[in-house]
Amino acid sequence: YPDAAETYRHGPTYIDIFNADQHATKRLETPYWPFASKGDWEMGSWLLRSGLSMRVIDDFLCLEKSQSLSLSFRSAKDLRNRAEMLPQGPQWKCKPWTADHPTKRPIKLFYRDPIECIRSLFGNPLFADSMHYTPFREFKTAAQLVRVYEEWMSADTAWNIQGQLPQGATLLGTILSSDKTNISVMTGDRMAHPLLISLANISARIHMKSSQHAFLLLVLLPVPKLLDKRQEVRGVQGDRLIHACLDFVLAPLKMAASLGIMMTDPLGQPRFCFTPCAAYMRHIIRGRVDPTADLAAYKQEALKYRLNGVDQLFWRDWPHAEPSIFLTPEPLHHWHKAFWDHDAKWCIHAVGPLEIDFRFSVIPHRIGFCQFKEGLSKLKQVTGREHRDVERYMVAIIADAVSKDFLIVIRARIEFFYLSQAPIIDGDNITDIDAALAEFHEHKQAILDAGARVGGSNNPLDDWYIPKLEMLQSVTASIRNTGAAHQWSVDITEHGHITEVKDPARNTNNQDYEEQICRSLDRTDKIQRFELATSMWAAEIDF
After folding, report:
1. Digit-coded pLDDT (tens) for 93-135
2. Tally of structural domains, the chain
3. CA angle 215-495-267, nearest 5°?
4. Same domain membership, residue 398 and residue 500
5. Do 361 and 282 sit in the same domain of this protein?
6. What Rg, from alpha-carbon coordinates, does the chain have?
7. Rounded to two decimals, what is the model's pTM?
8. Using CA atoms, how far apart are residues 416 and 425, in angstroms rounded to an integer?
9. Are residues 44 and 79 in contact, defined by beta-carbon separation less than 8 angstroms?
């Protein structure tokens, strides 16, 4: 895009910001302060990241061999106190939240400033070679007849938004991802609802790797125990609370998307940045702006339109935020989980559970492929990996046991999934994706004719009321607008729930989970920043 992403006078680099810390003068003589040396820091860093309890760390430090190392810290408490003196990243905040409806416990909202999180990601020197600053259009050949879609910045939305920004502005697409997760150990019903944030400017091959830490935990959304006796009303109250909290937390991003804000890139170059919403990765989101006081009646009316009763959506005043665009298809649940919930069940009913179990059980063993020695029909706990493996086998498994049209339906669905999840998609691929979906619709009556689509009581159904199936018609439009769909899969963020929420929760005393999770993440963030800065100092790297 011409005349975009201009840089201004040189600004502070990552090292400059690191050296602006209140203890920077002490590190002039001892670079690893508050640790005595590099070895002292490496031992302390390993102990802090190990997940060991404070008691176990104390026991380790009491060993004669440990004492012979002459470490600067003598206890776990001393070690953690030293970690607290490391340079600070985006700080955690706590806000008591007044709910509109009675709850079992007071609500506390733990969050970080989204601008500080975006600033931290945008200025991270690890992403210097993987950051896109300008929207671009990529073509298959020099004739520029066939478009290629890969990154968000290569798609139409980024190009169109850039045209609405001031000349020279830098577009920073914000990625959000949220989902509830269980944090209770063994027993209990404690849930967390983390919201992660990242930048669409970071190359997909980077932000899709959990080891790159390209997603930051922005907020722990409340999961309160609502006291209303009616389940449908509690659902509306919970959904409205989530949107209200997001509306509050994301307000600085909305302001920056409207007015712009100066930020420094990994090379220390200031840029005038705008922060629209590029993608919100979730299973399915439904909402409608139509407030009412009678939540029960409103919920019943909203269900007629497949809405959840939220009247103040958090994106309603976010500039350049169009929900039909940033609510992207999500491959893990919309495709692979949907295949397990629907297509696999159609095949089981059409072939018969005993026969299909036998066919899966006799598949020859191959390294890299999952084995289903007990069959398929009785599996309960199945992950996304197994969903994909079942897709690989299914067409061959049912080939001679179903009608030709039935087989075409399943093959067309699988072809649609495989084509759609490619990391690079061109205009010809989009034509093939649309053709696969059209082929499915052309032959889908074979599923009903076989009596394979059944309800909860195994009664045959004669309709196609499947929301995830309906969403497939927007996949190719989404690819044109936001780039290849594989980058919006929640595989990486669900793994992030483990490192960002579950692991810290397991190291708590099972009281005040949220506060202890935030303290743990704050300490981990300081360690990562200090390690990066000292590594750059040791290698004499500065921009």
Report:
1. 999 988 777 777 888 899 999 999 999 999 999 999 999 999 9
2. 3
3. 25
4. no
5. no
6. 26
7. 0.88
8. 13
9. yes
